[in-house]
Design brief:
Number of helices: 4
Structural class: mainly alpha
Oligomer: single chain
Radius of gyration: 22 Å
Shape: flat
Helix content: 40-55%
Strand content: 5-15%
């Protein structure tokens, strides 16, 4: 039992520093759109609907894009200002 505990402790001691150095250096899957880019239709699937659908092809996403197009443009939106703040850039 002590040997198993020692092996687990040894593996964790190698794993924790390596995960700490990689923390925050890579973008998450949602920032790349790898997870959010799909709609899964397992239980609410109608006739002739695929199980996996690209989110950009769904009716809800098309309606959201139309609302975004019709929304008046602001001079500077919050997301853009936040990115400028992260990049340490002064926005004029």
């Amino acid at each position: 039992m002590k040997n198993i505990f020692f092996i687990i402790l040894l593996l964790l001691s190698f794993q924790l520093p390596s995960s700490a150095t990689g923390f925050g250096t890579y973008k998450t899957e949602t920032e790349y759109g790898l997870i959010d880019g799909f709609k899964w239709n397992f239980f609410n699937r109608g006739e002739n609907k695929p199980i996996v659908q690209l989110k950009s092809e769904t009716k809800e996403e098309q309606e959201r894009l139309e609302r975004e197009k019709n929304k008046p443009k602001e001079e500077q939106d919050e997301i853009r200002l936040y990115r400028f703040m992260l990049d340490n850039t002064v926005a004029f």
